[in-house]
């Protein structure tokens, strides 16, 4: 018996895979993606803003010569960074758990 050769590859159309229905490409802009990710895990932007705020205020205090307040703000910055990392990790775990269900 002679087997027929497979049809040639057509790069203009996606390959046909049994049981798979391709979805149209959706181009998501930076703003849309940022808002979607912020809604999924709102603690990360809060942590980033608190880190930036503590750093900025600490540098202002350092420039004015208030070293005690500047040192406190640098410690607050480290805590805010830790909070942000923890929020990212919680988001990663939550996303992984959602994907398993």
TrEMBL record:
GO terms for cellular component: mitochondrial membrane; nucleus. PROSITE patterns: HIG1. InterPro entries: Hypoxia_induced_domain (IPR007667), RCF1 (IPR050355). Keywords: Membrane, Transmembrane, Transmembrane helix. It is found in: Mitochondrion membrane. Residues 15-101 form the HIG1 domain. The keyword Transmembrane helix applies. This is HIG1 hypoxia inducible domain family member 2A.
């Amino acid at each position: 018996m002679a087997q027929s050769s497979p049809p040639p590859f057509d790069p203009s159309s996606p390959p046909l895979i049994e049981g798979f229905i391709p979805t149209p490409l959706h181009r998501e802009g930076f703003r849309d993606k940022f808002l979607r990710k912020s809604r999924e895990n709102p603690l990360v932007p809060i942590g980033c803003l608190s880190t930036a705020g503590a750093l900025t205020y600490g540098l202002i205090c350092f420039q004015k010569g208030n070293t005690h307040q500047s040192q406190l703000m640098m410690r607050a910055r480290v805590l805010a960074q830790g909070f942000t990392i923890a929020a990212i990790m919680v988001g990663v775990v939550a996303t992984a758990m959602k994907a398993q269900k």
